Amino acid sequence: xxxxxxxxxxxxxxxxxxxxxxxxxxxxxxxxxxxxxxxxxxxxxxxxxxxxxxxxxxxxxxxxxxxxxxxxxxxxxxxxxxxxxxxx
Amino acid sequence: xxxxxxxxxxxxxxxxxxxxxxxxxxxxxxxxxxxxxxxxxxxxxxxxxxxxxxxxxxxxxxxxxxxxxxxxxxxxxxxxxxxxxxxxxxxxxxxxxxxxxxxxxxxxxxxxxxxxxxxxxxxxxxxxxxxxxxxxxxxxxxxxxxxxxxxxxxxxxxxxxxxxxxxxxxxxxxxxxxxxxxxxxxxxxxxxxxxxxxxxxxxxxxxxxxxxxxxxxxxxxxxxxxxxxxxxxxxxxxxxxxxxxxxxxxxx
Lengths: 88, 252
Description:
The structure holds 2 protein chains of 2 kinds. Chain A has helices at residues 30-42, 55-65, and strands at residues 2-5, 21-25, 47-50, 73-76, 79-82. The longest helix of chain A has 13 residues, at 30-42. Chain A is globular. Chain A is 27% helix and 24% strand. Chain B has helices spanning 10-13, 16-30, 36-58, 62-65, 69-73, 131-142, 144-149, 162-172, 187-191, 230-239; strands spanning 101-103, 109-111, 120-124, 153-158, 178-180, 195-196, 201-202, 205-209, 215-220, 250-251. In chain B, the strands form 3 sheets. A 6-stranded mixed beta sheet of chain B has the order 5-4-3-8-9-10. A two-stranded antiparallel ribbon of chain B has the order 1-2. The longest helix of chain B is centred in the first third of the chain and has 23 residues, at 36-58.
């Protein structure tokens, strides 16, 4: 897993999401489904962004992850977790 | 078991992801003309490499700390990819699911007919230990209570042997049955129209059977690395109580 910050030394690259947890992924990615279901089981509200439906989100992700649209990527209050370990 | 105590592998020396970024940096860097900016970038690159070297010195390599169960469970992360396109069309909803008898990891013969009376999810997956399958079955293990809440059984089926199933289930903590479609190889997968002849393993496919053994939902992933949508699977199970058989569809 890679941790990155959405903050850049040259200023914030985008407006912060209103919801503190955002999951970027695809419907067919098992790790995305594991993370989403884990959050739901914990009762943690989150926003889900389907990367196949949202080109702008893909561009944001490429900036965060060094050119890859890695999924899942989870935004948690300013910290970006790229392909975090399975919840189990 | 012998563990390798010689030199660390290339992957341990330099993770693939870092390697890929490095390759990309190198390609872009060649396009820059000589300038102070280019020199600054090269300094940054040098800083990154030095940081990586420092990190390696501060953590014990795998060969020194010994192999753990988690290391084995995570082997799929570095395994060859499996990304072929779908080759088969599944049996249609409304069809009586072909009966079968296959051994589980303990050698106990499981007959599909014994599962009548409750909804059943048949999970055909390509191979134990492989990338998509590991996380797909982790997902179902995580959601076992959701299947139980819907009074549904779930079983995995692949062409692996009972011994492979046993080891894989133990390492991953999988507690639902894994059936060995091993001999004749893939016979049950063929009965369900999900065997990939050229590959020697099955499609990544799901069948939802009602309590009478009638197929009510079928799905073959369009690509082997695509794991079926768990929300769609739950919806198919929820639909068993509210929909007539002909209302269910084939999902592709």
